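Work Package 3 (structural annotation) set out to generate three-dimensional models for the target panel prioritized at the project kickoff. During this period the team completed the workflow that converts sequence records into discrete structure tokens, so that structures can be stored uniformly alongside our sequence database. As a representative example, we reproduce one entry of 239 residues exactly as it appears in the project archive.
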Amino acid sequence: MDVNLTAMLRARQLFTLVRGLKRYPFPATFENVTFPPDGQLKLAKMPKEPTYDPEKGEEKYKTSKRTIWGRGVEEIHTELVHEQYGLAAVSGGMISADDFDFLQDRVNKNLIDKQFAIWRVDPPWLPRTKKAQGTRLGGGKGSIHHYVTPVKAKRIILEIGGHITEIEAQAFLLYLCERFKFPVEFVSQKILEERRVKEDFIQRHNQNRFNWDIMMKYNMQNCTSWLSPYDLEWKGKYK
């Protein structure tokens, strides 16, 4: 038998053509999309410093770094209001006015018709001081250089919604995560729901008897003496 004919017969035995119906996913519909009530579809410009009313006795003030405002986990603003897509902090950090300007410029340029974006954090309000270059030590605290916004872990920073799919949102939100000085991730309503279900499943089916509550209750290996108060409060999950 010819060699080519033998090869064709073997190939026909391995691959059999089958005629059938292909099931393609339905196109995304935006029936349940809710737009902002104020009609603002693009990110508003964040002021670089807070405003003070002298008539009410308000004035600029200097303070310590107050890094405690960026530690721990957020307890309120952890869900997406419009249940679509957004950016969330993985751990705590500070957002400067330059970061807000960059995010506003990049996001607004990528939004098209029937798409919107909203802020979920406050404008910069925490002062940061800096002394002039070449200044000697001493002389008290330096002058106010800029303001920042502290955020905690799991805090939603901004939201994207409207007639937009997840792939389109990821296209210009993922690279914005690298702008921050602390880890930030892309989240969607589906991701948050799956994460919540997974955490509940692990908590209900966990067979490990030694967890943080048991360790702290019975002070195993004298852990309460060498663990920090923040570890005892947040159970070692957040810094």
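The mean pLDDT is 87.
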